[in-house]
Amino acid sequence: MAKTVKAAVVAGPKQVEIRQFSYPRLEEGGAIMKSLMSGICGTDKHSYRGETKQNTGTDTEFHAAYPYIQGHEAVGVIEEISREGAKNLDYYGEELKVGDRVTFCPDIVCGKCYYCRHASWYPWCEDPSRECYGNSLSCDVAPHLFGAFAEYMYLLPRTYVYKVPEYVSNEMACLAELMSVTYTLDKAKELFAFDGEGFGFGGTVVVQGVGPLGLAHVIKARMMGAGTIIATDLSGYKLNLAKEFGADITLNVKTTDVKQRLEAVRQASHGLGADVVAECTGVPAVVPEGLQMVRKAGVYLECGHFVDMGPTEVNMAMVCGKNLRIIGMNNHAVTGYRPSMEMMHRTREQFPWMKFFSHRFYLDDYDEAIRTSQTEESMKVLVECWK
Question: Could you give the 3-state DSSP secondary structure of residue 11?
């Protein structure tokens, strides 16, 4: 009897089906990963709701490819690997073999276009062959298994694969991609060294929205020596958790108004405004307020709008008048996986890392899992692929 693979398929907006696929045949250059666990990403939530437009304004603009298998914040074990795949090694040049525990970059890039050659830290590829696991690859196309919410996942040639250190848990490995998105904070800190833009040691950082992405930014800002960290959200649960991970001040947008929040930021920053504000909500309406929170020559990090949620009105005279720098983050630093995993391990006593994970489900319950991930009382929701 042919071996089959169970997968959770998003067939359309708010339509989850558990399907069976044939176990794939390994092609030269590829690998097959036994999926162990994956986290539900903000992009997964958007696409589940039918909000699918991504990479707006680029030559690689696309929509999520229904029906498809989600899952790209994942950890698994190499089940099979071709000779050519083994020769390609992992991203850092270490040998890959059957039995290795790994994670991977969602983006499959060409390695040859202008952006792959000139901005190789980030998957900004504009070649038509660019794809994204758990996102742009339909499961109608063989070998079908292009997302980690399946018992096995197919890794195509050119995939950036990262070995997971033995001392890093499966849960922490699922955060490697998310923590690599926080490299916008590294850019903001880099700017400070030149002419005082961004933030230096002891600077004030505001994080708008402390779901998993925002909480990762709170953690990274604390790791990097931020002074006062201010978190805003509409969930008391998430704000309390942000405090446990290093936020000094929390502002609930349900119980405060814009004027009160702006004044709180001014008071916490000696009347100047925040050095850096990171938008992590994915809600366009919060951007004007965030720009008001930034001090002169400060930096606004736009991290939350990987999915196109439409426009908002911004007075560009304020951007000009305050000499603001706005930095977008379309994706993450592909160089950041191993450093992020190692840093999470080093700070295992500093942060209550396991509280980052609020819920756990099995593959058969994926519809409940992704609905739960969109509630105010959830943080990172994990899905295990095997009982």
Answer: strand
